[in-house]
Amino acid sequence: MKPRQYQPRKIDIGAFIDTEAPLDGLSPLDELPRMAEGVPPEVALDTIEPVSWQAQGRLVPQRVGEPQRWLDLSAHAMLPWVCQRCLQPVVLPVEFERSIRFVADESLAAELDADMDDDVLVTSRSFDLLDLVEDELIMASPLVPRHEECPQPPKMSVSDPGADDDEAEEGPEGSLSEGSPRKNPFAVLAQLKKSGNSGPSGDKS
Fold it and tell me: Which helix H or strand E contains 110, and what residues bound it?
């Protein structure tokens, strides 16, 4: 029998996990619109290497009852940014590896999510796997992109020309000072997700 084909944009996530089979793909950045928003406007999306992602279901046997359903998910991308130290282009890796538990209903997801470090999501027959990949890439993106060593001298803040490189660009909490370049556009979403106020589409409780 021919193996079942799964479409990542509309996948029966419970059935996929039950197979414990791998699924992977290459997704152009124009198929991940929220990630594409963070690309400098002068960079053409079709010049950026596609995002590489891998997913695999995993069943964890229990002494009593059905096995737990887990999804092991990872992705890697090389993305262009503007260095917030020297304002020159910089390409940085963005990657993650996550294990996410899937359960049958929202009440159980809410109960488990309060006691677990891992995310808990609700199974769906039309789960958007790439939307989850995009969420996790946003979380993994640098809030203040920088070269390890800038090819040009760092830009000084106009308001404090005598300050050193770090202090000229950042306040005491790491935020950029007035007159310096803006933060990564993913910063707010990433901070919200880390505090538990946002979740991937497709039934996060």
Answer: helix 106-113
